[in-house]
Amino acid sequence: MKRFYARTNKIKIARGIAKQQRRERLLYKLRQKAAAQQAEGRLNHAEDSPSVGFAETESLPQCSPETRYQISNSRRQYWDITSWLHKNREDLAVKVSISLCGFQSI
Question: Structural domain of residue 89, as residue ranges?
């Protein structure tokens, strides 16, 4: 409890500590679940993640430094988001993201 006190807003101490304990318990459960899935061989592997290796180079168009992200003009590297969403439909992060965006559940 003492370690959580420093991270509270010092106004609603009990609520702040309880919130941090719930968060810690949730993270612990998620780690256990991921470890169990990895032991069963069900955890997604690196080839299933949407990423491009460092060997692949693709120039991006000029943009302002304030731009949050850039999208390449090329369509050489792509990711089929529909199949990825379907494959990861039980992932809590995907469910939350879809519900926040207002899309129908998969």
Answer: 79-106
Find, among 85, 98, 90, 93, the residue nearest to 50 by Cα. Answer: 85
pTM over 0.70: no
Q: What is the pLDDT of residues 83-98, one digit of tens each?
A: 877 887 788 777 766 6
Q: How far apart are the first and last CA of the chain?
A: 40
- Measured distance CA(5)–CA(9) in Å, rounded: 8
How far is Cα 17 from Cα 82, in angstroms, rounded to an integer?
39
Asked whether 58 and 72 are in contact (CB, 8 A), the reply is yes
**Residue 104 resides in a domain:** yes
